[in-house]
Amino acid sequence: MVGAHVGRRALGTQDRRGTRTAPPRSEAGSKGPEIEETPMNPLPFIVERSIIIEADPALVFSFFTNPERWAAWWGAGSTLEPRVGGAIRIVHSNGFVSTGEVFEFAPPRRFGFTFSMQHQGVISPEDSRVSFTIEPHPKGTLARVRHAVADKSVAALLPQGWRFHLSLFANAVSNLVNADAPKLVDAWFGLWTEPDSAARSTTLQAIASADVTFRDAYSSLAGVEEIVLHIGAAQKFMPGVRLERRSPVRHCQGTALADWVALGPDGRQRMSGTNVFVMRRGRIESVTGVAAVAETI
Prior knowledge:
This protein is an alpha+beta fold. The protein folds into two domains: 7-177, Alpha-D-Glucose-1,6-Bisphosphate, Chain A, domain 4; 181-291, Nuclear Transport Factor 2, Chain: A, CATH 3.10.450.50. It contains eight helices and 17 strands. The strands form three sheets. Strands 1, 2, 3, 4, 5, 6, 9 and 10 form an eight-stranded antiparallel sheet that branches.
């Protein structure tokens, strides 16, 4: 069961430097979890990296407890048993499969695992140990990784490897946070044919931040009220014109693109273009419209 076992395996003496250990009883409290300890070999070569992820720490840590989210990060076929001693499996894009086990599981902050690697042969899980620390950050979450290995030449390869895998981590989290991006985009386009000002305001407040901005060739606006009034004016001076999305919503790391057309009352296309949506925590923060054809509606 997820969260049923909190603990860690003990590290060798030489590898304790720079490694977070369980808090003393005075810090953890007399009723804190028991810590499981079994010997692990020391690994002298250590690489540390970090990344800021725009999501709540609890959601970020769920990628260490939810097997489906683990696979969304590491790749299809990757598996996870979220407990001390649980097996991990990572299926890489080149077909190599890393295996290992969890040696630290302390939600919602720490997660550690061993895993095999490929470098001039196969590096055993015992010679490759990864520790994650998840911390709150003003922008969301600071994720720190510490990777200890037995071989100096392997350590030299790790910065680029983690630069890549932490980016995939941030992208997987962002895809989850912004899973409703298509719905938000369609709701935005729907505002432009909503005749009721109060209904437009209610919808915009539901899908966007209070200081949402909108920019295109005819607009440079900030705030829900300004955008609601601007849409009302557009309906007055361009009666019967409507916007339709004409492409899938393409999302990456909180930015979404959607192609659109503007149709006149007769159904004929008057303009087309692409909107760039910036999203934070599942809400629209800004919209920028770029017309593909400079026509007069």
